[in-house]
Amino acid sequence: MKKLFVISFLATFVIAGCSSTTLTKGIDTFFSDVKAGNIQAAYTETAKEFQAATSLDQFTSFLKQSTLGTYKSASWENEVLSWDQWKIQGEVTTIEGKILPLNISLIQEDGARKIYNMIIPQGENTTTGTAVVPSQSEMTALVHKYMGLFVAAINTWDFTTFYNNIAKIRQTQTTVKDLLTSFKVFVDHKVDLSFTKTAIPTFTAGPSIDTNGIMTVQGTFTTGTGAVVFEDKFFQENNEWKLFGLSIEME
To answer: Phi/psi class of residue 105: alpha, beta or left (left: φ > 0; alpha: ψ in -120 to 50)?
Structure first.
Protein backbone atom coordinates (compact mmCIF):
# COMPACT_ATOMS: atom_id res chain seq x y z
CA MET A 1 0.00 0.00 0.00
CA LYS A 2 1.07 3.58 -0.57
CA LYS A 3 2.09 5.35 2.60
CA LEU A 4 0.33 8.67 2.91
CA PHE A 5 2.05 9.95 6.02
CA VAL A 6 4.88 8.72 8.21
CA ILE A 7 5.13 10.92 11.29
CA SER A 8 6.83 10.33 14.62
CA PHE A 9 8.35 11.92 17.68
CA LEU A 10 10.30 8.88 18.85
CA ALA A 11 13.31 9.68 21.01
CA THR A 12 16.56 8.09 22.04
CA PHE A 13 18.37 8.44 25.31
CA VAL A 14 21.30 10.83 25.47
CA ILE A 15 24.59 9.15 26.36
CA ALA A 16 26.97 11.38 28.22
CA GLY A 17 30.14 11.07 30.21
CA CYS A 18 29.82 10.78 33.96
CA SER A 19 31.92 9.35 36.76
CA SER A 20 31.11 5.67 37.16
CA THR A 21 32.35 5.82 40.75
CA THR A 22 29.91 8.62 41.56
CA LEU A 23 26.94 6.94 39.92
CA THR A 24 27.53 3.50 41.40
CA LYS A 25 28.17 4.66 44.96
CA GLY A 26 24.50 4.29 45.91
CA ILE A 27 24.27 0.92 44.17
CA ASP A 28 27.37 -0.33 46.00
CA THR A 29 25.77 0.71 49.30
CA PHE A 30 22.56 -1.02 48.26
CA PHE A 31 24.28 -4.33 47.51
CA SER A 32 26.46 -4.10 50.61
CA ASP A 33 23.24 -4.05 52.62
CA VAL A 34 21.81 -6.93 50.56
CA LYS A 35 25.00 -8.97 51.11
CA ALA A 36 24.80 -8.31 54.85
CA GLY A 37 21.17 -9.42 54.90
CA ASN A 38 19.99 -5.94 55.85
CA ILE A 39 17.09 -5.82 53.39
CA GLN A 40 15.34 -2.95 55.18
CA ALA A 41 18.40 -0.73 54.73
CA ALA A 42 18.72 -1.76 51.07
CA TYR A 43 15.06 -0.87 50.57
CA THR A 44 15.74 2.67 51.80
CA GLU A 45 18.23 3.07 48.91
CA THR A 46 15.30 2.87 46.45
CA ALA A 47 13.26 5.83 45.24
CA LYS A 48 9.89 6.79 46.69
CA GLU A 49 8.22 5.81 43.40
CA PHE A 50 9.86 2.38 43.59
CA GLN A 51 8.58 1.93 47.15
CA ALA A 52 5.10 3.10 46.15
CA ALA A 53 5.00 0.38 43.47
CA THR A 54 6.84 -2.34 45.40
CA SER A 55 6.26 -3.17 49.06
CA LEU A 56 9.09 -4.38 51.31
CA ASP A 57 7.68 -7.92 51.16
CA GLN A 58 7.52 -7.81 47.35
CA PHE A 59 11.05 -6.40 47.26
CA THR A 60 12.31 -9.20 49.51
CA SER A 61 10.58 -11.77 47.31
CA PHE A 62 12.11 -10.22 44.18
CA LEU A 63 15.62 -10.47 45.63
CA LYS A 64 15.05 -14.11 46.53
CA GLN A 65 13.44 -15.19 43.26
CA SER A 66 16.00 -13.38 41.10
CA THR A 67 18.90 -14.68 43.31
CA LEU A 68 20.16 -11.10 43.68
CA GLY A 69 19.81 -11.71 47.40
CA THR A 70 22.94 -13.89 47.25
CA TYR A 71 25.02 -11.05 45.76
CA LYS A 72 28.80 -11.47 45.91
CA SER A 73 30.24 -8.86 43.53
CA ALA A 74 29.41 -6.71 40.50
CA SER A 75 30.93 -4.79 37.61
CA TRP A 76 29.25 -1.69 36.16
CA GLU A 77 29.14 0.63 33.18
CA ASN A 78 27.13 3.84 33.07
CA GLU A 79 24.88 5.86 30.78
CA VAL A 80 23.05 9.11 31.45
CA LEU A 81 19.41 9.13 30.32
CA SER A 82 18.61 12.77 31.02
CA TRP A 83 19.53 15.57 33.37
CA ASP A 84 18.11 13.73 36.40
CA GLN A 85 17.94 10.04 35.45
CA TRP A 86 20.69 7.50 34.84
CA LYS A 87 20.87 3.90 33.75
CA ILE A 88 23.62 1.66 35.08
CA GLN A 89 24.28 -1.52 33.14
CA GLY A 90 26.46 -4.36 34.34
CA GLU A 91 26.69 -7.86 35.75
CA VAL A 92 26.15 -9.27 39.23
CA THR A 93 27.92 -12.41 40.41
CA THR A 94 26.14 -14.39 43.12
CA ILE A 95 27.67 -16.52 45.88
CA GLU A 96 26.69 -19.59 43.86
CA GLY A 97 28.76 -18.30 40.93
CA LYS A 98 25.76 -17.33 38.80
CA ILE A 99 26.27 -14.25 36.60
CA LEU A 100 23.21 -12.03 36.13
CA PRO A 101 23.01 -9.13 33.66
CA LEU A 102 21.39 -6.23 35.48
CA ASN A 103 20.13 -2.81 34.42
CA ILE A 104 19.39 -0.26 37.13
CA SER A 105 17.81 3.15 36.63
CA LEU A 106 18.62 5.92 39.12
CA ILE A 107 16.94 9.23 39.81
CA GLN A 108 17.99 12.25 41.83
CA GLU A 109 15.88 12.44 44.98
CA ASP A 110 16.38 14.47 48.16
CA GLY A 111 19.97 15.24 47.20
CA ALA A 112 20.93 11.62 46.57
CA ARG A 113 20.71 9.13 43.70
CA LYS A 114 18.09 6.49 44.41
CA ILE A 115 17.24 3.26 42.58
CA TYR A 116 14.17 3.80 40.38
CA ASN A 117 13.93 0.32 38.86
CA MET A 118 15.89 -2.89 38.39
CA ILE A 119 15.64 -5.08 35.30
CA ILE A 120 17.22 -8.47 34.65
CA PRO A 121 17.19 -9.05 30.86
CA GLN A 122 16.20 -12.61 29.97
CA GLY A 123 16.06 -12.85 26.18
CA GLU A 124 12.75 -11.33 25.08
CA ASN A 125 11.42 -11.32 28.66
CA THR A 126 12.49 -9.27 31.65
CA THR A 127 12.30 -9.56 35.40
CA THR A 128 11.85 -6.21 37.07
CA GLY A 129 11.29 -4.76 40.49
CA THR A 130 8.63 -2.34 39.23
CA ALA A 131 7.67 -2.60 35.56
CA VAL A 132 5.04 -5.15 34.54
CA VAL A 133 3.88 -5.67 30.96
CA PRO A 134 0.15 -4.80 30.74
CA SER A 135 -2.46 -7.34 29.69
CA GLN A 136 -3.96 -7.03 26.21
CA SER A 137 -7.03 -5.23 27.53
CA GLU A 138 -4.87 -2.84 29.56
CA MET A 139 -2.64 -2.26 26.53
CA THR A 140 -5.68 -1.52 24.37
CA ALA A 141 -6.93 1.00 26.94
CA LEU A 142 -3.49 2.63 27.04
CA VAL A 143 -3.33 2.95 23.25
CA HIS A 144 -6.89 4.32 23.16
CA LYS A 145 -6.04 6.90 25.84
CA TYR A 146 -3.16 8.40 23.90
CA MET A 147 -4.83 8.12 20.51
CA GLY A 148 -7.73 10.06 22.01
CA LEU A 149 -5.37 12.76 23.29
CA PHE A 150 -3.59 12.81 19.93
CA VAL A 151 -6.84 13.15 17.98
CA ALA A 152 -7.98 16.00 20.24
CA ALA A 153 -4.63 17.76 19.75
CA ILE A 154 -4.94 17.52 15.96
CA ASN A 155 -8.54 18.71 15.94
CA THR A 156 -7.85 21.71 18.18
CA TRP A 157 -4.36 22.52 16.85
CA ASP A 158 -3.24 22.47 20.46
CA PHE A 159 -0.89 19.83 21.87
CA THR A 160 -0.81 21.22 25.42
CA THR A 161 -2.97 18.50 27.00
CA PHE A 162 -1.18 15.82 24.99
CA TYR A 163 2.19 17.17 26.17
CA ASN A 164 1.06 17.29 29.81
CA ASN A 165 0.21 13.57 29.68
CA ILE A 166 3.44 12.21 28.17
CA ALA A 167 6.34 10.97 30.30
CA LYS A 168 8.12 13.69 32.27
CA ILE A 169 11.47 12.48 30.99
CA ARG A 170 10.13 13.04 27.45
CA GLN A 171 8.85 16.51 28.36
CA THR A 172 12.46 17.52 29.08
CA GLN A 173 13.32 16.67 25.45
CA THR A 174 10.47 18.36 23.59
CA THR A 175 7.94 21.21 23.74
CA VAL A 176 4.31 21.77 22.79
CA LYS A 177 5.53 23.73 19.78
CA ASP A 178 7.83 20.86 18.74
CA LEU A 179 4.91 18.42 18.83
CA LEU A 180 2.74 20.69 16.71
CA THR A 181 5.57 20.98 14.20
CA SER A 182 6.13 17.21 14.14
CA PHE A 183 2.48 16.46 13.43
CA LYS A 184 1.73 19.57 11.34
CA VAL A 185 0.90 17.49 8.26
CA PHE A 186 -2.04 15.93 10.12
CA VAL A 187 -3.30 19.36 11.14
CA ASP A 188 -2.82 20.87 7.67
CA HIS A 189 -4.65 18.00 5.96
CA LYS A 190 -7.34 17.85 8.67
CA VAL A 191 -6.78 14.12 9.02
CA ASP A 192 -9.64 12.51 10.91
CA LEU A 193 -8.44 9.69 13.17
CA SER A 194 -11.42 9.81 15.51
CA PHE A 195 -12.27 6.16 14.87
CA THR A 196 -9.01 5.06 16.54
CA LYS A 197 -10.31 6.20 19.94
CA THR A 198 -12.72 3.27 20.06
CA ALA A 199 -11.70 0.84 17.28
CA ILE A 200 -9.96 -2.32 18.48
CA PRO A 201 -6.30 -2.32 17.41
CA THR A 202 -4.54 -5.39 16.07
CA PHE A 203 -1.21 -5.73 17.84
CA THR A 204 1.58 -6.92 15.56
CA ALA A 205 4.58 -6.77 17.93
CA GLY A 206 5.06 -6.47 21.67
CA PRO A 207 4.47 -5.19 24.19
CA SER A 208 8.05 -5.73 25.31
CA ILE A 209 10.29 -3.86 27.74
CA ASP A 210 13.88 -3.10 26.74
CA THR A 211 16.90 -2.65 28.96
CA ASN A 212 16.15 1.08 29.34
CA GLY A 213 12.73 0.30 30.80
CA ILE A 214 11.01 1.47 27.61
CA MET A 215 7.97 -0.57 26.60
CA THR A 216 7.23 -0.77 22.86
CA VAL A 217 4.07 -1.96 21.15
CA GLN A 218 3.21 -1.97 17.45
CA GLY A 219 -0.16 -2.43 15.79
CA THR A 220 -2.71 -1.30 13.25
CA PHE A 221 -6.18 0.21 13.08
CA THR A 222 -7.96 -0.93 9.92
CA THR A 223 -10.74 0.86 8.06
CA GLY A 224 -12.52 0.19 4.79
CA THR A 225 -10.25 2.67 3.01
CA GLY A 226 -6.86 1.81 4.50
CA ALA A 227 -4.96 1.40 7.73
CA VAL A 228 -3.27 3.38 10.47
CA VAL A 229 -0.02 1.73 11.55
CA PHE A 230 1.36 2.82 14.90
CA GLU A 231 4.31 2.25 17.19
CA ASP A 232 3.93 3.48 20.76
CA LYS A 233 6.70 3.68 23.34
CA PHE A 234 5.99 4.03 27.05
CA PHE A 235 8.01 4.72 30.19
CA GLN A 236 6.72 3.94 33.68
CA GLU A 237 6.43 6.85 36.12
CA ASN A 238 4.68 6.70 39.50
CA ASN A 239 3.65 3.12 38.68
CA GLU A 240 1.85 4.34 35.55
CA TRP A 241 2.83 3.86 31.91
CA LYS A 242 3.30 7.23 30.19
CA LEU A 243 3.78 7.84 26.47
CA PHE A 244 7.44 8.27 25.54
CA GLY A 245 7.25 8.12 21.75
CA LEU A 246 4.70 7.81 18.97
CA SER A 247 5.08 6.89 15.30
CA ILE A 248 2.12 6.82 12.91
CA GLU A 249 1.87 5.71 9.30
CA MET A 250 -1.26 6.08 7.20
CA GLU A 251 -1.65 3.64 4.34
So the answer is: beta
